[in-house]
Amino acid sequence: MTKQTSKCQSLDCIFKPKSIAVIGASTKRGSIGREILNNLLAHGFNGMVFPVNPKAEVINSMKCYASVSDIPDSVDLAVIVVPKDGVLSVAEECGKKGVKGLIVISAGFKEIGGEGVELEKQLLGIVQKYGMRMVGPNCMGAINLNPNVQMNATFARSQPPFGKVGYMSQSGALGVVILEYAASLGLGFSMFLSVGNKADVSGNDLLEYWSNDPDTEIILLYLENFGDAARFTRIARQISKKKIIAGVKAGRTRQGARAVSSHTGSLAGLDMAVDALFDQCGILRASSVEEFFNLALALSHQPLPKGNRVAIITNAGGPGILATDACVSLGLDIAQLSARTTSNIKSILPQEASVNNPIDLIASGGPQQFSYVVKEVLKDPNVDAIIVIFVPPIMIDNFSVAQAVAQAAAGSEKPVLGCFMGDEKDRARMGIHGNYRLPIYAFPESCAKILEEMVKYYRWKTKAEGKFNTFKVDKEKAGAIIRRAKPGQLTDYEVREILTAYGLTVAASGTASGLDEILELSEKIGYPVVFKTNQSGIIHKTDVGGVVLDIRNDSEAVKAYKKLKTNLEKKDVKTEALSVTVQEMIKGGKEVVMGMFHDPGFGPLMMFGLGGIYVETIKDVVFKIHPLSDIDAMEMITSLKGYPLLEGVRGEKPVDMEILVESLQRLSQLVNDFPQIDQFDINPFIVCEKGEASRIVDARMTITNE
Fold first, then answer.
1. With 0-12 CB in 10 A as exposed, 13-18 as middle and 19+ as buried, what is 90?
2. Strand blocks (E) in 481-557
3. What CATH number belongs to 10-216?
4. Backbone phi, then psi, for 51, in 5-degree steps?
């Protein structure tokens, strides 16, 4: 057993204790200590419970102990609900007693800053000293709904039924609301944990623990931060192949982010890193808590669609059109029903009904019609999923229709989602037939969004594993350049040498000072050429007029040199010792951009997009978390809105996709080898059709001394 595996299994002391001490249990109704004790008793915890309070002899008809040391039996888990100043001494006593796990509800630690940070550090020291595991501090507790455990060690008012969803929350207050909402929906949980400050037990620990838990098939995460993002990525990638992970990430905007000097950094703002991480790990991302639970309800009760072809069955034309628009806008296809399906449906419907998709049963459609049509459509090989929409007319009971649809869909390997509009009452109880449950929503757009996410996950789960290729490179040469360089932006020469060392083809170029040297170098490279200023401190050369293109001879070179000096002087750039990069002029091909930006929370973010001087205006770029597999790299390319330009339009031949994939992976290898590289841009990279030389035209790189 590895150390990490042992650590994850040790969470049994949190979720599967045989005995629990509530330290800070209270006789006062409504207090947190009293409510936690009541929840343990009211929900039938299958173990011993010991109230601890030095000021009480009996609480809730139970003997109360003055301290955990006074308890005659062993204690697996202690729930600590005492003022912050008493937490350290209680934790020390628990360690001496042999308590294996702590849930520290008490607040006033790292979350308040100042002395709270030091207090939490001391608390963690005690936990590690005695080999305990700790949830919190500043949390609302844990729940395990397995019938063999039945532990509710929280102060929440509601408890959902037992089910297949494991839920982790980084917000205790939101956790209370979540438990109530899940209970109202009838959404079953296996376990729940409010992690609080994550001083010891983290979200990553919980992911690993639930990956081996047979009760947990779906993992829901409410996240405010990731902690160790690299570890999260590694764990989530593995788990998502066998269990569904869905998340809501709070804090979608980045305020006060540090200034960045690259296109990559400026384009990586807002929420790109989270989207990239979730996408690569196969995590479904909800934009709101409501969408979060809409998705969980479907995933808990429906199979995954094996394609994106949707059939819509409705009794009203307008909602059918809304559903159609929503599906198409989200990339779902409206299924073309087989002739057999339409013929069978037509035989039992009135002449006014529409048997084409969307199928409109009209207002007279009742339980029998809905049941028959659902069964027939599920048989159609052209259909991967069904959305059933019902607007209740006065003469038809919506419950009876929901029951009929649920019965017709029971046992199907295709998902069926219901949209029953206009009646909020008891929606959660509708559509239940035995062990089968038809998820029912208020509006058709919700059904379409859920199906989009389900299709996305199925595709991710079933796609081939990518290869993390390692190429033969001159790491020693690149390392020598980086070690010699000062922190900050490298020179054009240094960047060219590093990229060349890693097998990337850079357009022929050189650096010269003075007109005579520049003319000599231009003739050596061969006209036409490009002049670029090489003066230090200039980030975007075109912004200061520091680039002159398509210089065809010596005469034009003299004029270009003078123009370059004039442009720079107008921008107050010193030109006494003007250094110029002379480069071959590349024509043809397509301009793309490749880059990397070190995100403070996620590490290296790799970027690919359509390049050129308008990259920050067009913003057709894709980000992924480093490292990149070959499939990651190809997905970056094909995900661009402008991908058809690379495929070839109006008779043009496609560009060399293989060289793009290889170049992205070579750059990912460079990033892995040298963490000192803070950010870089390759813009433009001129990619040509296969068989022609694709080359880097311009690049810049910044390193740190970290």
1. buried
2. 488-489, 509-513, 529-533, 547-551
3. 3.40.50.720
4. -70, 140
Beta bridge partners of 437: 432
Give percent above pLDDT 70 in the chain: 94
Q: What is the pLDDT of residues 266-308, one digit of tens each?
A: 444 446 778 888 888 899 998 888 888 899 999 999 999 999 9
Q: For 145-157, what is each residue's pLDDT tens digit?
A: 999 999 999 999 8
- Structural domain boundaries in the chain: 10-216, 312-410+439-462
Phi, psi of 211 (to 5 degrees): -60, -25
Asked whether 132 and 144 are in contact (CB, 8 A), the reply is no
Task: Compute the C-alpha angle 203/205/207, nearest 5°.
Answer: 70
Backbone angles phi, psi at 599, to 5 degrees: -75, 135
Residue 438 near residue 416 (C-beta atoms within 8 A)? yes
Q: What is the chain's Cα-based Rg?
A: 31
124, 134 in Cβ contact below 8 A?
yes
Query: What is the CATH number that goes with domain 312-410+439-462?
Result: 3.40.50.261
Task: Give pTM, 2 decimals.
Answer: 0.83
* Cβ atoms of residues 667 and 679 within 8 Å: no
C-alpha to C-alpha distance for 220 and 623, rounded to whole angstroms: 24
Rounded Cα–Cα distance for residues 299 and 305 (Å): 11
Q: In what order do the strands lie in the sheet with 579-584?
A: 509-513, 579-584, 529-533, 547-551
pLDDT at 432 over 70: yes
186 confidence band (pLDDT: 50, 70, 90):
confident
pLDDT at 637: 96
Is 3 a residue whose pLDDT tops 50?
A: no
How long is the chain?
706
pLDDT for position 265: 42
Rounded to whole angstroms, how far apart are CA atoms 420 and 647? 43
Residue 44 exposure: Cα atoms within 13 Å on the Cβ side: 7
- Residues of the chain by 3-state class (helix, strand, coil), percent to 5: 40, 20, 40
The answer to whether domain 10-216 and domain 312-410+439-462 are alike in fold is yes
Distances (CA, A) of 698 to 145, 176, 457, 658: 59, 54, 38, 21
Strands (E), 293-431: 309-314, 333-334, 359-360, 385-390, 416-420
| Separation of alpha carbons 688 and 462, rounded Å | 32
